[in-house]
Amino acid sequence: MINPRKIIRKPLVSEKSTNMRLSENKYVFRVDKNANKVEIKRAIEELFKVKVEDVTTMIRYGKPKRLGRYEGRRPDWKKAIVKLKKGETIGFFETV
């Protein structure tokens, strides 16, 4: 199995993700682009010792950017929305 710390890159904290956490018990993470839902579920359960009910993933395409006359793109990345079972919380987010 792949190291869970390589699958889960970082948590995403925004106004929308905070509202999802408080109302629907959903947490948002930036994950490895090649990871599938099963790997993400196992990684979250192993890292935070919680039970995961559902995982939703989406590919976020990089925005075009330019620096002077040179054009380029930011890299594509993958976002995962993880729904925990009722009564479960991730303590890491409670301090944010």
Structure, briefly:
With 96 residues, the protein is of the alpha+beta class.
Walk me through what this model shows.
This protein is α+β, with helices and mostly antiparallel strands and 96 residues long. The protein has a single domain, classed as RRM (RNA recognition motif) domain (Alpha-Beta Plaits). 31% of the residues lie in helices and 36% in strands. The protein contains 4 helices and 6 strands; from the N terminus they run αβαβαββββα. It has helices at 4-7, 15-24, 37-48, 91-94, and strands at 8-11, 26-31, 52-60, 64-67, 70-73, 77-84. The strands form 2 sheets. The chain has a 4-stranded antiparallel β-sheet with strand order 1-2-6-3. A two-stranded antiparallel sheet has the order 4-5. β4 (64-67) and β5 (70-73) form a beta hairpin. The protein is globular and about 55 Å long.
How are the secondary structure elements laid out?
Elements: H1 4-7, E1 8-11, H2 15-24, E2 26-31, H3 37-48, E3 52-60, E4 64-67, E5 70-73, E6 77-84, H4 91-94
Antiparallel strand pairs: 1-2, 2-6, 3-6, 4-5
Keywords:
36% strand; 31% helix; Alpha-Beta Plaits; two-stranded antiparallel sheet; 4-stranded antiparallel beta sheet; 96 residues; alpha+beta; globular; 4 helices
The helix tally amounts to 4
DSSP strand tally? 6
Order of helices and strands: HEHEHEEEEH
Helix content: 25-40%
Largest sheet: 4 strands, antiparallel
| Alpha carbon gyration radius | 15 Å
Question: Major sheet: order of its strands?
Answer: 1-2-6-3
Strand-pairing-aware structural class: alpha+beta
Name the CATH homologous superfamily: RRM (RNA recognition motif) domain
- Provide the residue-averaged pLDDT: 94
- Overall morphology: globular
Strand content: 35-45%
Count of individual domains: 1
What CATH architecture would you give? 2-Layer Sandwich
| CATH fold description | Alpha-Beta Plaits
How would you name the oligomeric state of the polypeptide chains in this document? Answer: single chain
Distance between the termini: 30 Å
Uncertain ranges: none
CATH secondary-structure class: Alpha Beta
